[in-house]
Amino acid sequence: MGRLIVVSNRVQPPGDASSGAVGGLAMALAAALREHSGVWFGWSGQTIEEHTGQLSVQRIGGVTVATIDLEPQDLDEYYNGYANKTLWPLFHYRVDLSVYERSFSEGYGRVNARFADALAPLIQPDDMVWVHDYHLMPLAQELRRRGVKNRIGFFLHIPWPARRLLATLPNHRDLVEALFDYDLLGFQTEDSASAFEDYVTGELDGSVTPDRRAHAFGRTAQVGAFPIGLDVETFEAAAHDEVAVAEYERMHASLNGRAMILGVDRLDYSKGLEERFLAYEQALLDHEELREKVFLLQIATPSREEVDAYQDIRARLDAVTGRINGAFATVDWVPIRYVNRAYRRDELAGVYRAAKIGLVTPLRDGMNLVAKEYVAAQDPEDPGVLVLSQFAGASEQMTQALIVNPFNREEVAEAIVRGLAMPKSERIARWAELMADLRRTDVTAWRDAFVKALASDTAGTERLAG
Question: Is position 157 annotated as part of the catalytic site?
């Protein structure tokens, strides 16, 4: 096999892992790129007034990184527009928030074409190309148009929507047709992979074989579920380093004998934060004995602040937090601590360890690695309890969590109460099973499974023959 070329909207090259700023996905991909003398290609994060197509190539952390700049119009139409105002809400089942504008789809196609123009000359005959996420679904089609015959795989980090939802997207058939220029289509969960297969058979009159080869548009693509894992060893080490220990001690001192319920999320309407706050309020209403004995710490990192829907959710959460705190707070107790800032991974590891409950209740999520990080950070002798949404991809694996419907306020409230009262022996048993599965299905196992499947030439032979 030749090199592995990873393509993503943004390039996150490995820096100093000890800083805590580098994610496990970036580290796993970087390791694979070093192993295969690979290249990581994507947008630089910079904008220029006029597109030149100029490629910047540098060596960072032992990895060759190739980036291009985008124009402000590209950023507005491709990234803020089609990717995050059209596809993101639709794929997270928020059709009501999806915005359809012709300029968005035009910008999306234009940037994917520009990526292909810059990338195609880098690809050598034996290379494999691994494209990541919803920003770049048409990229293989653009590469094929430029004569690239290499094996190209695609991995979707977010959920794939149900067939009838996807059908609300203008030109949805064109988007899916572009996916059939990939050799391998990877999804986070069986639910998403099955939803894609249902679209192929129900909307396209295509077919799917028992070994999950999808046929449509005269081509074949292999379909698979590849649930992404956590960099367990690295995260465990971070949970015991100086920064994490200091953060744990700081949090433990601030508890003042109270139990902490913790939420850590990017500020996004898909994360179910308002529903979470209302469920916590329900627990306080139904169980007066909890008042002044617990508090909810919600860390919500701002993102995409230029998108109207994100400005709206932030305003709504500010209002709900103020109302709940106004109704229940005493002179020395505030029921919700709501923080809008980013924390390093090693800092978060210490915060996770201090929490009795990890509250991970998205309304829809591809995987949700916060659930896995929470478990990995726990004290084996006295672990906390994970309360997990059934609509997070992680729920397919993490069955020893308390699985809840995030739309059911009373159910989430009761899970919080149950978790707080759970005997230590049960907490340890549940944690041990969760941790064993995290080790077995870590990020390296995910990476290797996808690369191995992409290297298999069965689907590619059929696609080229078709």
Answer: yes
CB distance 415 to 386 below 8 Å: no
- What local confidence, expressed as pLDDT, does residue 311 receive? 82
Domains of the chain: 4-229+444-465 (3.40.50.2000), 232-440 (3.40.50.2000)
Taking the chain, what is the end-to-end CA distance rounded to the nearest angstrom?
24
Per-residue pLDDT tens for 141-196?
999 999 999 999 999 999 999 999 999 999 999 999 999 999 999 999 999 999 99
- CA–CA gap between residue 180 and residue 137 (Å, rounded): 10
Residue 126 falls in the annotated catalytic set:
no
Q: Cβ distance 126 to 165 under 8 Å?
A: no
pLDDT tens-place string over residues 421-430 = 999 999 999 9
204: phi then psi, degrees, rounded to nearest 5 = -105, -10
Q: How many CA atoms lie within 13 A of 107 on its CB side?
A: 24
CA angle 446, 393, 168 (to 5 degrees): 115
Query: Which DSSP string do the residues of 232-292 spell out, in sequence order?
Result: HHHHHHHHTSHHHHHHHHHHHHHHTTPEEEEEEEES-GGG-HHHHHHHHHHHHHH-GGGTT
Residue type, 225: A
Cα angle, residue 65 at apex, residues 153 and 78 outer, rounded to 5°: 60
**Helices marked H in 82-189:** 88-91, 102-119, 139-145, 163-166, 172-179
pLDDT exceeds 60 at position 285: yes
DSSP 159: P
- Give 314-319's long-range contacts (Cβ < 8 A, gap of 24+): 314/267, 314/340, 316/274, 317/267, 317/273, 317/274, 317/277
User: Catalytic: which of 36, 51, 76, 157?
Assistant: 157
Here the tokens at position 321 are 């937090």
Distance CA 130, CA 7 (A): 6
| Active-site choice (133, 183, 365, 442) | 365
Alpha-carbon distances of 72 from 50, 69, 182, rounded to whole Å:
9, 10, 29
Location of structure tokens 């379909």: 223
To the question of pTM greater than 0.90 for the whole model, the response is yes
Q: Do 28 and 231 contact (CB within 8 A), yes or no?
A: yes
How far apart CA 389 and CA 404 sit, in angstroms, is: 5
